[in-house]
TrEMBL record:
Name by which UniProt lists this protein: tRNA-uridine aminocarboxypropyltransferase
Taxonomic source organism: Metapseudomonas furukawaii (Pseudomonas furukawaii)
tRNA processing recorded as keyword: yes
Phylogenetic lineage: Bacteria, Pseudomonadati, Pseudomonadota, Gammaproteobacteria, Pseudomonadales
Family of this protein: Belongs to the TDD superfamily. DTWD2 family.
Alphabetized InterPro entries for the sequence: DTW (IPR005636), DTWD2/TAPT (IPR039262)
Keywords: S-adenosyl-L-methionine, Transferase, tRNA processing
GO MF annotations, alphabetized: tRNA-uridine aminocarboxypropyltransferase activity
């Protein structure tokens, strides 16, 4: 029989993260587009971001037929948080115009995220922004797939702190840290050390 789960954070009731999830305001609007394969992932960090931000929305799917409507916000400047040719530093884009950003964030493995861009041409057409190099993920369960790879939640926090400096958004990371620590304790220190040496995916 499955354990009862919290309907909000979707964690087992005995490990509910809701008391740790903040409710933060932001000028930046965040649109999280999650590949369906991520929904059941233990570290569903896009969901944590959506729950913790008042001005965030989480959509799940591969093809988003209403994407034009989602992006049609004249008060905000849409941009895609994803590396690629022509991507500009987020700080540079944020400083170029006083209007707030609409930050579109694909959520999935690198392969799945690229697929989202492929099947949604509206995404591929957006101006791309990137974070500064050299950031280190707090995702300690497995090794990052490449230098500077962050979980979706970590990337959103970093992006907001750049776009809305000096406002801090690191309170969003509290449930993320608790989730990771709980999984490390559940698997045991020896298993954690063994798994930590294996290759990994972004979250």
């Amino acid at each position: 029989m499955p354990r009862p789960s919290c309907p909000r954070c979707q964690r087992p009731e005995s490990h509910c993260l809701c008391p740790l999830i903040p409710h933060l305001a932001s000028r930046t609007r965040v649109l999280l587009l999650q590949h369906p394969s991520e929904v059941g992932h233990a570290l569903n960090t896009a969901r944590l971001a959506a729950l913790g931000l008042a001005n965030a929305e989480l959509r799940v799917g591969e093809r988003f037929d209403d994407l034009d409507a989602l992006l049609a916000d004249g008060a905000c400047r849409p941009c895609l948080l994803f590396p690629g040719e022509g991507a500009r530093p987020l700080a540079e884009v944020a400083a170029a115009d006083p209007r707030p950003l609409l930050l579109v964030v694909p959520d999935g493995t690198w392969r799945k995220a690229r697929k989202l861009l492929h099947v949604n041409p509206e995404l591929a057409a957006l101006p791309r922004v990137t974070l500064p190099e050299g950031r280190v993920s707090r995702y300690r369960l497995r090794k990052a797939p490449m230098p500077g790879a962050l979980s979706t939640l970590e990337a959103v926090v970093a992006a907001l702190e750049i776009a809305e400096s000096p406002t801090r958004f690191d309170a969003l990371l509290r449930p993320f840290e608790a989730l990771i620590q709980g999984q490390i304790e559940a698997m045991g220190e020896e298993t954690f050390r063994r798994n930590h040496d294996k290759a990994e995916r972004p979250g």
